[in-house]
Structure formats: structure tokens, C-alpha cells
Amino acid sequence: MSLFDLTGKVALITGSTKGIGQAIAHHMAEAGAKVVISSRNQPACDEVAAEINAKGGVALPVACNINYKEQLQALVNKTIEHYGKIDILVVNAALNPFYGPSQDIPDEAFDKIMNSNIGSAHRLCQMVLPGMAKLGGGAVIIVSSIAGIKGSNVLGAYGISKAADMQMARNLAVEWGPHNIRVNCIAPGLIRTDFARALWENPETYKQTVSKYPLRRIGEPDEIAGAAIYLASDAGSFTTGQTLVVDGGGTITG
User: Fold this and answer.
1) According to the CATH classification, is domain 10-253 in 3.40.50.720?
2) How far apart are CA 145 and CA 161, in angstroms?
3) What is the residue extent of each domain of the chain?
4) Beta strands of 66-180 (E only): which ranges?
5) Range in 6-20, 33-47, 183-197 the model is least confident about
6) DSSP string over 181-219
7) What is the percentage of the chain residues whose pLDDT exceeds 90?
8) Of 45, 125, 147, 173, which has the fewest beta carbons less than 10 angstroms from its beta carbon?
9) pLDDT tens-digit series, residues 117-128
């Protein structure tokens, strides 16, 4: 059996109708996992799930706004009702409503970033991890960002939330390790997604960014999906509490 085989596993993936989350969902399904597709938009969830099912995978679409605890609980409940368990939790959904210096961010935007990016991850783990423990273990993957490692004059609050993801992974790894639950982060660099479009669609911004990357290019969503499968599978069975940086070498030269 392959170290990267996910046959028999159930993976709940938030923010999985586009970008990194969608790539993770497609590749986990290809690796044998039954996946739950989730974002705010039910038609988008239906579309991605249909694509996976048409390719021979198994996918369930469940819309969820991560800002509301009751919707998060409904997402978890529907997953367990349909599949009977959750083996893999991928916390990918996040937002950034403000781009600029921290001095100028409105309280509402700051609070929204913290509630959505940190609060929803915390609450999902509270809801999912006890069930994982009863099953004998599982894997949690939080999609963070190199914004949580480096300083920024335009992504301050977002970077704080992404740094908090890394500490959350360390804390939960310590708390739940005795139950055979592994918790890790992935910190992508600049990836070709709609979320980061403002950073790669502008030719000057793109040129300036990739000039600092040893690989001289930005990443693709599939390249983050590979890291997620490693952390979710037996290949990563002795990896926990870590942040895997996947950034084309950007942080080693920046």
C-alpha cells in the first residue's frame, strides 16, 4: 500500500470550491478519500462535487459560512451523518477584507479577520477532534501562509491570523497527540489563486515577487495539494505540530 493512500478516509475541507481548497479536494479524492466540499455558495459546492464524482471519486457538497458557529456545527453534523466519521480536517477557508497599513484598518475588518481565520479554525477543531479521538486518531491540516512568518506593511492583521494558525497547530498537537491526532500547518507562498489575484495579476508586482523566489515563479494550487496529502497520509504519520512552508524558497531569500 502506498504511503500516500487515503482509501477509506473521510476528509472535510473548508473553502474547497476554488483555489487551494479545490485542488486539495480533487487530489484527496484521487488518493481514495471521500471528501466534503464546502464554501458559502451551495451551487459552487454542487459543481465541484459533481466534477469529483464524475471522475469516479466520492464527494458530498455542503454549503457553510465559517463566520457562524451554527453553520460550522451543521457542516460537521452533516458530514458525520453521511459518512459516519471524519478522519481528515482541512481548515482552508479564510478571508482578508483589508489591504493596507495596520494603522488604517477599521475595527470591524480586524475583528472579522480574527473571527473568521482564527475563530472558525478553533471552533471546527473543538467540534471534530473529540470524534477523531474516539476513532483512534486523525489528521488536521490548517492552511496558513508565509504572511504569518514575514512582516508586511499591507497584510498586518491577516499575517497575525496566519501566525496564530501555526500556534494553534502546535497547541493542538500537544493536546491531542496522545490520542493519535496530528495537527499541522501548510504555509504557502504566492499561489495562483483568485484569493491572491491582486498580487500576481499585476505584471510589476509579479515581477518583483518572483525575483526574490529561487524558483523564479509563483506556485500552483496542485503543489499545495501534494503537501496536504503528505500530512494527511501515512507518509506524514510522525509529523505533528509543524508548519510546512511551500513557497518556492521565497522566505529563505526575502
Assistant:
1) yes
2) 9
3) 10-253
4) 88-91, 138-143
5) 183-197
6) EEEEEEEE-SBSSSTTHHHHSSHHHHHHHHTTSTTSS-B
7) 88
8) 173
9) 999 999 999 999
